[in-house]
Structure formats: C-alpha cells, structure tokens
Amino acid sequence: MRIFISGGCKNGKSHYAQRLAKIQQTGALYYIATMQPADGEDDERIARHRRERSGWGFTTVEQPAGIDAVLQKCDCGGSFLLDSLTALLANEMFLPGMRVNEQAAEKITGELLRVLNGIENIVVVSDYIYSDAAIFDPLTKKYRKSLAHIDRTAAGVCDAVLEIAYGRAIIHKGGGAFDALYKKMP
After folding, report:
1. Fewer CB within 10 Å, N side or C side of the chain?
2. What does the radius of gyration of the chain's CA atoms come to, in whole angstroms?
3. Using CA atoms in the order 50, 53, 58, 63, what is the torsion angle rounded to 10 degrees?
4. DSSP conformation letters of 5-49
5. What phi and psi values does residue 137 have, to the nearest 5 degrees?
6. Into how many domains does the chain fold?
7. Element (H or E) spanning 58, and its range?
8. CATH number, domain with residue 60
C-alpha cells in the first residue's frame, strides 16, 4: 500500500510512519533519509530518528536529492519509508552558494511519481506547513507553494492519506483499504 502522511512539525509522524512501514513489510525494509543536516538541531533530530528505528530492521539509504535513484539502489519489492518530502524540497530548491532552483517542485514531482509507481509498499512523510495566515517573503511563499504541489501529487497517487495530529491518525483517503493495515498496528 502507498501511504502519504502529513501533519505539523515534530508531532510523531516519523514514528507512526515507521510502524506502518514495518507492518506492511514484504521483504527488505528501507528508510529513505532525505535530511541534510545544517546544524546541531538537525544532527540531534537525525540521531533521535536513528535511535527510534534501531532494531526494526531498516536499511537506511541516504538520498538527499534525486529521489528516484532509490529505484536502482533498492529492491523495489521491499517496503519503504521516505522521510521527508519537506527536507527533500529544501535540498533541491536551496542550493549551495545562495542559489535557488525555481524548478525544484517540478523535478521532485516527476521523480516522486516514478518512485510511487515503481514501489508498491511505501510510506511518504511530509510536513503540513502551508495552511496558516502569516505573511511570508516571496522565496518562502515559493517553497510553501512548491511543497503543497508535491504533497497534492503524492496524495493523489497514494492509496491512503493520513494526517497525524498529536500522534493520532486522521484518515483523509483510503479508509477502507487502510483499515486492514491499521488493525495490525501495535
């Protein structure tokens, strides 16, 4: 099953996604890590995620850009957790030397569609950062709009769409298909 998970920052999405990826495991179990650490807070977040999935059987594949490369690196018959589209967009959009790739959303969308169409069991995580009423600079607006575009594309292709709020899942799509999998959750 292809599952898309979104929700607020630091609310348990990754841990919930790990549980889903594990219970739908069909072979190898892959954690596709997209974050490129920029500071100590990022380093700690990565370390926490590694501790949380320790002993679960995940093979970590670092893929901060060019997400469709996982199709050649991994056994596509396995189960995947892609965490996260938010970091992937930041990596692809904000380039070294203060350069900005204005076409990052289109690039990621195309690559993500190849991944989602090439892998049967995948959980994709993103952050819901585009719904408040704050006023942002043009570049931040572009990033938020780009993430919304990528997320809508992923949600459209996935079998189930979940929002995690306070560690609980709200099912927005695929409730019937998701029910059988959900019943296996520890």
Report:
1. C
2. 16
3. -40
4. EEESTTSSHHHHHHHHHHHT--S-EEEEE-----SHHHHHHHHHH
5. -70, 165
6. 1
7. strand 58-62
8. 3.40.50.300
Confidence of residue 133 (pLDDT cuts 50, 70, 90): low
Longest dimension (CA), the chain: 48
Query: pLDDT tens-digit profile of 81-92?
Result: 999 999 999 999
Distance CA 147, CA 90 (A): 9
C-alpha–C-alpha distance, residues 43 and 125, integer Å: 19
Domain span including residue 48: 2-182
161, 149, 96, 98: which is closest to 125 by C-alpha?
Answer: 161
Tokens coding 119: 């892998």
CB 6 within 8 A of CB 171: no
What angle (nearest 5°) sits at the alpha carbon of residue 12, between those of residues 146 and 65?
40
What pLDDT, on a 0 to 100 scale, did the predictor assign at position 128?
82
